[in-house]
Amino acid sequence: MTKLRDDLDGVVYIDGAAYKAGDEVPRGAVVAASLTAPEPQSAPPKRGRPRREG
Questions:
Q1: How far apart are CA 17 and CA 33, in angstroms?
Q2: CA 11 to chain centre
Q3: Which of 22, 41, 45, 48 has the most CB atoms within 10 Å of its CB?
Q4: Per-residue pLDDT tens for 1-54?
Q5: DSSP labels for 33-52?
Q6: What distance in Å separates the CA atoms of residue 54 and residue 8, rounded to the nearest whole number?
Q7: Do the Cβ atoms of 17 and 48 come closer than 8 Å?
Q8: Cα gap 7→38, rounded to integer Å
């Protein structure tokens, strides 16, 4: 789910409700991309064979 930026000063009003920094944006709400935190990227897959133990 999309969250508001952690460094946001003030509040954002969505459908009459106030949301502050770090709050989750309700599903279906439309907000500017500059107000949202970047989505965490998944770690890249590891390459190569696993190490042998022993």
A1: 19
A2: 17
A3: 22
A4: 789 999 999 999 999 999 999 999 999 999 999 999 887 777 777 787 777 886
A5: GGGBPPPPPPPPPP-SPPPP
A6: 51
A7: no
A8: 12
